[in-house]
């Protein structure tokens, strides 16, 4: 005797929510894929068919369906990763970017590290700060809005 097929039954509102989630910007791709898997299951696809279509393992599809059944919509997002929390929060990085925009002349990493220590009581090495700024610049480069200049040897907008 075989086990019954694992399937999701969505009501109209849940189906619309998952469809909107798939089209929303700012939602992680993994979450969008999970929403697609649930909608396919609702339409009668088996976990094997969904796994083949999405390029997943069958166990991943089953886990997604079980997470939906246990936690609902909140089960589609990833849980926080373990590890040490970052020393430099996004709020501090935003404040640092604003500081760079108001700074007259060229600013180097040593001056920025001193600023972080004095104003925010955050102790970072110059190399780590450069890595954070490089990462922030690469993320902002992907966004449609231009980012204010920041980093080593960058002239602030006032000095042109």
Quick structural summary:
The protein has 160 residues and is mainly alpha-helical.
Task: Tell me the layout of helices and strands.
Elements: H1 12-23, H2 29-42, H3 47-54, H4 58-71, H5 90-102, E1 106-107, H6 109-120, H7 126-142, E2 154-155
Antiparallel strand pairs: 1-2
Walk me through what this model shows.
The protein has 160 residues and is mainly α. The chain has two domains: 12-76, Orthogonal Bundle (Arc Repressor Mutant, subunit A); 90-153, no CATH class. It is built from seven helices and two strands, in the order αααααβααβ. The chain has helices spanning 12-23, 29-42, 47-54, 58-71, 90-102, 109-120, 126-142, and strands spanning 106-107, 154-155. Helix 3 packs across helix 4 (58-71). It is elongated, with a radius of gyration of 23 Å. Residues 146-160 have low confidence and may be disordered.
Look at the structure and give the mean pLDDT.
82
| The top level CATH class name of the largest domain | Mainly Alpha
Roughly what fraction of the amino acids lie in strands? under 5%
Number of helices: 7
Biggest beta sheet summary: 2 strands, antiparallel
Using the CA coordinates, give the radius of gyration.
23 Å
The residue fraction in helices comes out at 55-70%
Q: How many angstroms separate the termini?
A: 76 Å
What is the total number of structural domains?
Answer: 2
SSE succession: HHHHHEHHE
Structural class: mainly alpha
């Amino acid at each position: 005797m075989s086990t019954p097929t694992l399937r999701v039954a969505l009501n109209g509102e849940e189906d619309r929510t998952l469809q909107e989630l798939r089209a929303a910007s700012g939602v992680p791709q993994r979450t969008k894929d999970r929403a697609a898997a649930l909608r396919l299951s609702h339409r009668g696809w088996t976990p094997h068919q969904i796994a083949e279509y999405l390029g997943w393992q069958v166990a991943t599809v089953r886990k997604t369906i079980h997470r939906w059944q246990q936690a609902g919509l909140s089960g589609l997002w990833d849980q926080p990763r373990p590890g040490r929390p970052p020393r430099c929060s996004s709020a501090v990085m935003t404040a640092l970017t604003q500081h760079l925009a108001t700074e007259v002349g060229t600013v180097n990493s040593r001056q920025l590290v001193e600023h972080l220590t004095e104003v925010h009581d955050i102790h970072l090495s110059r190399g780590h700060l450069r890595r954070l700024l490089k990462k922030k610049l690469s993320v902002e480069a992907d966004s449609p809005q231009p980012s204010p200049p920041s980093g080593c040897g960058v002239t602030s907008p006032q000095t042109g």
